Amino acid sequence: MKKKIISFLIVSSLIFIFIIFYKGLNRSNFYKPKSEIKNIPQFLAISFYSKKKIDSKNIFNTEKYYLLNIWASWCVPCRDEHPILFDLAKNEKLEIIGLNYKDKESNAQNFLDELGDPYEQILLDKDGTNAIEWGAIGVPETFLIYKNKVIKKFIGPLNQKSIKEIAQIIK
Predict the structure, then answer these.
(1) In what order do the strands lie in the sheet with 121-125?
(2) DSSP structure class, residue 41
(3) Is there a cis peptide before residue 140, judged by omega within 30 degrees of 0?
């Protein structure tokens, strides 16, 4: 009788565990932020080249389009999208700001030496807090900004479709 009770408890426990795991597989834990237009966050960052603190109020002019590109040297998709940033940098209506995310400065400099620098300005985000303020969930991510508002967010690497979309918006 004792063996039957133990067997019943073991089987019941296994069934219970199976049900919990099965329900967990059907529920997505992927967080997708809202893509609504919002004001850009105010923040302080260190300039990559001058090493001076910069207030975001002094970066974004209200009458200009900006792309804030969050990138890192260790990010393979960032390497893939880099030539596209050069294509976008040719547009005089657009200024590209880089936010270097959780990276070693020497690695970031090697990345730029190897692939070139399409950015008007690069800001350092050593601990990732500025990217979090922007609502970024990974790298690369890019924000199209106009009049201190995010008007479009691109999750993942930019591509030819992104270039066309940006060109349509800023024409």
Answers:
(1) 38-39, 149-155, 141-146, 65-71, 94-101, 121-125, 44-47, 53-55
(2) P
(3) yes
Q: What is the pLDDT of residues 15-74, one digit of tens each?
A: 888 888 777 776 655 445 554 558 889 889 999 999 999 998 888 877 889 999 999 999
Q: Provide the token pair at 76.
A: 């393979």
The residue ranges of every structural domain in the chain are 38-170
pTM of the model: 0.77
Sole residue written with tokens 């609502």: 135
Between the CA of residue 90 and those of 63, 79, 110, 120, what are the distances in Å?
18, 19, 23, 12
Give the angle subtended at the CA of 134 by the CAs of 162 and 55, to the nearest 5°: 110
Amino acid (one-letter) located at 83 = P
* N-terminal to C-terminal alpha carbon distance within the chain: 81
Q: Residue 167 belongs to what H/E stretch? A: helix 160-170
Class of domain 38-170 (CATH, top level)? alpha beta
DSSP codes joined into one string, 76-131? HHHHHHHHHHHHHHT-TTEEEEEEEES--HHHHHHHHHHH----SEEEEETTSHHH
